[in-house]
Amino acid sequence: MITVLTAKSGRTAGAAVQMSGRWLLTCAHVVNEALGLPLESVAEPADAWVDVAFAALPGTGRRRARVRHWIPRRAAEPGALGWLADLAVLELRDDPPSAARPPAWRNMVAGQHLVAWYGTGQEYSYAKVDVGSCDGPLGYLDGTLAGAALGPGYSGGPLCLPDGTAVGLVVAHLPAPAGPFSPGDVIRRGIAIPWQAVRAELAAAGVPDRVMSALTAAPPAPYGHLVARMAQPLAVLLGDPVLRADRAGQLAELHGLDRPRDGSAPAYQELAAFLLRHPRGTADFAEIHAPTLTTRAGRAALDELVGLAHGEGAALLLSAGEHHELLEHLGGRCEADRTLLPRATQGALPYARLPAVLRASRLPSGALDEAVRALESFGGDSARVPYDTPRVPALLRVVEYVAALHTNGADLPALRAWNDRVARRLGIPGAALAERRQDAAEWAARQREGHQRTVVVELDRREGDPDHHFRCALWRTRADGTPARVETGPDRALPAAVIARLVRQAADGGEGDTALVEVWVDDAQLQLPVDEWDGADPGDGLAAPLGEEHHVVLRCKAVRRNASALARRWADRALAEPLVVDGRATDPKSAIVRLKQDRDCGRVVIHGPRGHRDTVLRACLVLGVPVVLWDRNADGYDHAPRLDPVGPAGPLDGLHERVRRFRVDAYADPAKYPARPALVWEDPERQLPDGLWLADPEGTEA
């Protein structure tokens, strides 16, 4: 429990919960209370700092925390009680106490029995509640008449299951009604923000994945049911009490414990329980015992033991020594090249639903351990192995792809030797690992040859969506040209900046050419300045318009309605002369006539005022013209020279890059370069990917 304190008196304003590292989560109205502002204020406090204290860790003193992400309350849906959102993400100025630990999280569902504490965290302040309803962005809580009731000072604190797993935040309580009590009145009802709604709100607000990384589902609770099952293979492996005592002693020393002085051997169930209490305990035991195996029965028993623990999420893949050594090999590489691990992972597991920390193009600083742990949770890479042998873990496949990207690196032999040792410990045949090594080498060769990465963006709006917000679907092309769906969070309208960051993350990384970003819009959205949307992460300090880093083009389904004309004009796009509508020799009406006469014209450059441009643009769409260029800032035909630096009638092959270079100049000096080129580029061979989302069956989200 973390206490949020008021600025003036130092009293308790509410509570907060640690997300990861220096990042804390609380309610926006708790921050308002701490700063002496009206609770319902929605304006983001400018450069606001609040005092917090780790209530569960006495003697650690107060700490300062700054408001970094502000998601104020907004009206709930009609018929709902309370409000939506009401969240704030804080960042501590200094590191938290070393003993501080964020809770595990799980979905809130109706029927859960939960407990919350007052912001000061005293044990006696607990309030027990039941989740009465939770079918949307709010959860409704009912408390019994015994014990404390939710009230002021509880807001922002976690709601926990008996095992300490958090499922949401306290956000409000309902005061007793005025006047005499009636048996029909609601008693002790509170409102919560469920964990699943918290994640959705933070993602929609653009909170970086590195901040949200700890808000992951809790592992399956108590593993008592596994103890008896794991005792069976242990009995096969350690039937000799002397050997069992020796193995138990080695494990004890490895985990900082003393060997039993009497040399006694633990019972099989006692040893199984020890392995389950330590996430790397099972792998530690396997690393110690695997070199001594001489029979198929022993190998099968060890595989069964590891499979039981890892399959239930009760054990990590690597031993403590293997984990430490891998971080040593990868640490310097990943700090020097933040794209290395995401590139290798996306190449090795192209169809997997990757964990949040590896979806972006760059690995956040200090997130290597988190990324490795996430990859350890994948059961296998779903590729073939010799019959009746263990599958190759996804992590080992990724390590091969990392190694293949640095064939000249000094760490290559050591990294591959590490992979070989872990594979032998796991009982993986050398032929299976060799196949992954060959796959990685071929993939890396394609990377070095260079290819244009493509990101497809589909923008849509629905009735009731806020202005300047769009629903977004994203795909990124794999090395084989097939589209891979990119997760964008819940189906809701997002602001342009959030969409731009998602596009930038999907487009960045790799050693190929500048990425092509294809933005699918309807007729009414062709004037959207998507190329100007800023994809910079908060805190970057430097703007990153999409059109500056990528080849941003528009695509419109309307052009594809005349499929035969589109195919014919596309085939001749580089041969036929472009039609330039400049108002001197060609006005809108004559331009349309020219297009009807010249059935091979594949490129049109449109100048003139907005009304004239729209008329010609609509005609181009209807007549299947695949390449259309115009200046969306132009007010008349006299502005045509503004586009001259782009070379609108120049070679078609370099048009993408000429437009990108011009946009760089225009964003840097708008007065000198006032034009804003918009480019429709409709390749009939490239279809909009359908909505079917298939993922590697081992690629469940970590």
Structure characterization notes:
The chain has 702 residues and is α+β, with helices and mostly antiparallel strands. Helix content is 32%, strand content 18%. It is built from 20 helices and 24 strands. A six-stranded antiparallel β-barrel has the order 1-2-3-8-5-4. It has a six-stranded antiparallel sheet with strand order 9-10-11-14-13-12. Strands 15, 16, 17, 18, 19 and 20 form a six-stranded mixed sheet that branches. Helix 19 links the parallel strand 22 and strand 23. Helix 4 packs antiparallel against helix 8, helix 10 packs across helix 12 and helix 12 packs antiparallel against helix 13. The chain is globular and about 100 Å long. The two termini are 25 Å apart.
Kindly summarize this structure in a few lines.
With 702 residues, the protein is of the alpha+beta class.
Strand and helix layout:
Elements lengths: L1 E4 L6 E9 L2 E4 L1 H8 L13 E6 L7 E10 L2 E2 L7 E2 L2 E6 L20 E4 L10 E7 L5 E5 L14 E3 L5 E8 L15 E6 H10 L4 H4 L11 H14 L3 H14 L13 H10 L3 H9 L6 H16 L8 H17 L3 H9 L19 H9 L17 H11 L7 H15 L3 H20 L4 E7 L8 E9 L5 E4 L7 E2 H12 L8 E6 L24 H4 L1 E6 L6 H9 L7 E3 L6 H10 L5 E4 L3 H13 L4 E5 L23 H14 L8 E5 L21
Parallel strand pairs: 15-19, 19-20, 21-22, 22-23
Antiparallel strand pairs: 1-2, 1-4, 2-3, 3-8, 4-5, 5-8, 6-7, 9-10, 10-11, 11-14, 12-13, 13-14, 15-16, 16-17, 16-18, 23-24
Helix pairs in contact: 4-6, 4-8, 5-7, 9-13, 10-12, 12-13, 12-14, 18-19
